Amino acid sequence: MQRQLASTALGAALFALAGAVRAQACCTATGSSELGVVGRCHFAVLASQLSYDRGFGSVDARGKYQSLDGSRVDDAVLTLAGGVRLGTPALQAHAAVPLRLQHRELRGLPAATRLGPGDASLGLRAMVVEDLVAGLDLSEPRTLLPFIELFVAGRFPTGRDASDSDTPTQADVTGEGAWSLLGGAQITKFVTLHQAVVATGSYARRFPHDVTGANGQTRRYAPGDEVDAKLAYVNVFDLFWSATLFSTARFTARAANDGVAVPDSDTRRVRFGGGVSHYLSYPYWQLTFSASFDPPVDDFAKNVPFASVTAGLTVQRNFTY
Amino acid sequence: MTKLVAALALAVLPACGSDPEPVARDLAHVTSGKGQFSAAFTPHPDPPTTGDNALDITLRDAHGSPVEGATLQIEPWMPGHGHGSPVVPEIGELGGGSYHATQIDFIMPGYWELTVAVTAHDVRDEFVVPCDVK
Prior knowledge:
The structure holds two protein chains of two kinds.
Chain A lengths: L1 H31 L11 E16 L5 E3 L4 E15 L1 E18 L6 E6 L2 E10 L17 E10 L23 E11 L4 E12 L2 E4 L5 E5 L3 E11 L4 E12 L3 E2 L2 E2 L5 E15 L3 E9 L10 E16 L2
Antiparallel strand pairs in A: 1-2, 1-3, 1-18, 3-4, 4-5, 4-6, 6-7, 7-8, 8-9, 9-12, 10-11, 11-14, 12-13, 13-16, 14-15, 16-17, 17-18
Chain B lengths: L1 H16 L12 E2 L5 E8 L6 E11 L9 E8 L4 E2 L5 E6 L2 E9 L3 E11 L2 E11 L1
Antiparallel strand pairs in B: 1-2, 2-3, 3-7, 4-5, 4-8, 6-7, 8-9
């Protein structure tokens, strides 16, 4: 009888643990890799990310990579972000506000370090299809369905535009100066209970704005629209640990000045990275370290002024129902 | 299947291997937009780099005679990014149609243009000088 009881208790504990791991896996793959996005099993999230970006090279319009000689470009960014579900578990809103500390040393110019707000963003996200998080089972068609999320977001020119810069190195330029609106989709498929593949794609319309040069001449500048793609592989080791490998790609169309397209101004940027996430106290406090870089090779990117390596640490507090 | 692979290869090739249109780089013989002046431009350093740069300009009129006493204004501009430099370059006249510009500050590598506006004897015209900043 005692043995039967113990066996039942162990079974119940294992079942509960499997459910928790499934929930953790689900939340890790659907939320924590993106700042301020609420994981599937959470109600809300507050996050703080500190990242450091070090420029080490540049890529010109012909795709030729060259190291940065005699220049130093360092950015430290503190981003405060949060998200909350809106009435229904399928819909959430999220926002992010960056604070940027930028250091620039360029040949022959006085070094400068400036602090200022970056461009803030606000988004809506809806889950339209849900994965069972049971792994793939070809005999059960329902297990083939992934999570599918649709999202829209706006980015606002709360940072300092280059037109307003007053330092020779433009260390004080913390924003693009343009409004932008993006829409996209994310597909997350658990191929096993512990492993997921995440594909994200988005299109951003960047709106024209007036820019004024140092001599007072004003132009109508239209930045090129952007297409972003991200492919990630997530491995959830256990209740507390998970790891991610990812690659991002950004393609920007040609810019235009006063309605005239700028030849050869389109850009291409591909980065690789990875991260490790750890629940300090499940499911509330979560710590994530991530790093990414631009490959320092020719013919990979195009028109990237500062190829860089980036490392970031995120602390987030999840709120459950 | 072979056709599909070939089509995919063709779709990928332009993004991976094509060279952009060549841009005139002969800065020794540049004609202004309306043809009122010609000039030779010599950047220092050559090629230009991020940071502080200078530019020597030898200015001639449409008949090839040196232009003295001209007023020059230079604006660095990065057309693909829609920004310039917060510092206005300074220009000094050396005589014999030669001018020397300093404080030409490029804040990042990439393609820049220097718009050089020239006013001499009530004639105004502009040069656009391409710069591949390293």
